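Q&A log
Question type: sequence-to-structure
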Amino acid sequence: MAKSVVFIADSLDNAHRFKSILSGMDVTIHAGSSAQARKLLQANPASDLVILEAKGNVAAQTSLIEEALADEDAASMLIIVDQQDLPDLRLPVQTKADFVVSDASDEECATRVRQLLWPGNEASSNDFISIDNLTVNLATYQVKVSGCPLDLTYLEYALLAFLITHPGRTYSRDALLRRVWGFDYYGGSRTVDVHVRRVRAKLGPELAQHLETVRGVGYLWS
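Response status: OK
Response body:
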C-alpha cells in the first residue's frame, strides 16, 4: 500500500540523498524546508511518516514537529541528526519515532524508513529495481514512472519484470511464452509481440528504448 512521506530539510545533500532512497519505495513525497514545516504538515494531515533533518537546536525542532503531529493520526517520525548533536537528541514520546545519524549508509536509512512505514513487513532492498525514472517493486507487483503508478495488466507486468530481472539477454518468443505465460498456454507466439507493444507504449519513448527487438530472435532488456 502506498504511503505518504513529509520530508523536511534545509541541506541539499540530505534532500537529494533521501529523494534517491525513497524513490525505490512505494511512497509519495512532500518536501520542503524547516521554514515550511508547519505548512507542509497542515497540507498533508494524513501523512504516514515525517522525516526531519534536525540541525542546530535539535530538541526544539523535534518538539515542534511532535506537537504538530500530536493532533493528527500519529504519523511516525524519523530524525536525521549529526553525530555531534546526539547528546541533545530526545526522541518524541507521543509518536512512534526513530533516528539516524547523517553519515549513516543509504542501506541503514532505507531500513529505518521501511521499519517505520511497514513494521513487520519490511521489503528487502532487493525487491526494488530502479532504472532511470522507472521503479519496479517486485514484492508488490507495482511499477512507477517518475513516481506515477503504471497501469499494467498482470501479464504486461510479468513480461516487463522478467526482462528487467534478466538484462542483456535475448529471449525468443517461445522462451518468453514458457517463462512468463507458462507451459499451459496454447496461444500463438505473436501474443508476445502484442504485449511488448503495449508495455512500450505505457513506458513511454525514453524507457521503451531499453526493450529492444533482436530481429529474427526475440527481445531483450538492455
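Response note: The mean pLDDT is 85.
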